[in-house]
Amino acid sequence: MSRRFIRVRPPLRQRLRPGRLPFRPRRRRGGKLRLLIGAAIALFAIVSFFGSRQYNPVTGEKQFVALAPHQEIALGLQAAPQMIRQHGGLDPGDQRQRLVDAVGMRLVERSAAARTEWQYEFHLLADTQTINAFALPGGQCFITAALFDRLETEGQLAGVLGHEIGHVVARHGAQKMAKSKLTQGLTGAVLVATDSAESTLLTQMIAQMVNMKYGRDDELQSDELGVRFMADAGYDPRAMLAVMRILAEASSGSRPPEFFSTHPNPDNRLARIERAIGEVFPGGVPAGLEP
Asked: What is the distance between the alpha carbons of residues 264 and 225, in angstroms, rounded to a whole number?
């Protein structure tokens, strides 16, 4: 009887040489192509952003803006009706609206804002619940009845409107849009270049880092411009300090920590306003200004 010999292969761990794997891991296909496309998207976003730099003669700074002046004006005019609807329409008091118009145009006509091409309009909104004021690109400025009713003097109203005119003159809306386009380009590049779950977290971090500080700087710069415009128009800029206290009281208990907020701490805004007043009137605020 013939014997059959069966070859028994040694266990896998014995057939492997030390330090070697039984197979080579397959490389992800297209990884290098994704990186190249992502890099191209990021480069285009960065070049476009830095190519949008313009000089602002009122603020004296070079800034990055995403819109031409006529586009800002058109955008503001187009968005104004929607803003009015969101706040319950316009305030029905004609006399109150005339006061807002008179103070707003006085600030514009007697300050550097008159040398700009923006088309200013001032709207008193019927909203009696939301204490707020804001501006759209191109010159559309708004104040709610809730804030208007808390103001005690014409100078305080001038402080609110001067701040909003500052947003328009400094072109903060167009700057924010330019930053938003840069953010979209960079986050799009990350999404294209990676396919891991970490990409979502990374894109959120990029968006926060690019845009967060910008909002706080906007508010502080508008405060400083508002002080200048008030002084030029014959208003006592110290009235803006009272406005800040009103806003601080309204937001107490609901305002997040300053670092995570798009608006600076009211206490810090008070300090910046006082410093701006000292720069405009180094010898002290003169008598005779309208409070």
From this structure: 16
* Type of residue numbered 179: K
Position 140 pLDDT exceeds 80: yes
Output the 3-class SS for the chain.
CCCCCCCCCCCHHHHCCCCCCCCCCCCCCCHHHHHHHHHHHHHHHHHHHHCCEEEECCCCEEEECCCCHHHHHHHHHHHHHHHHHHCCCECCCHHHHHHHHHHHHHHHHCCHHHHCCCCCEEEEECCCCCCCEEEECCCEEEEEHHHHCCCCCHHHHHHHHHHHHHHHHCCHHHHHHHHHHHHHHHHHHHHHHCCCCHHHHHHHHHHHHHHHHHHHHHHHHHHHHHHHHHHHCCECCCHHHHHHHHHHHHHCCCCCCHHHCCCCCHHHHHHHHHHHHHHHCCCCCCCCCEC
Distance CA 92, CA 77 (A): 21
Confidence (pLDDT) at 33: 73
Length of the chain: 291
CA distance linking residue 72 with residue 50, whole number of Å: 19
Confidence (pLDDT) at 155? 98
What pLDDT, in 10s, does the model give residues 187-238? 665 666 665 555 555 555 545 544 444 478 899 999 999 999 999 999 999 9
How far is the first Cα of the chain from the last one, in angstroms, to the nearest whole number?
A: 122
What tokens were used for 154?
A: 């014409």
pLDDT given for residue 212 in this prediction: 44
Distance between CA atoms of residues 3 and 244, nearest Å:
102
Given a contact cutoff of 8 angstroms between Cβ atoms, the answer to whether 257 and 121 are in contact is no
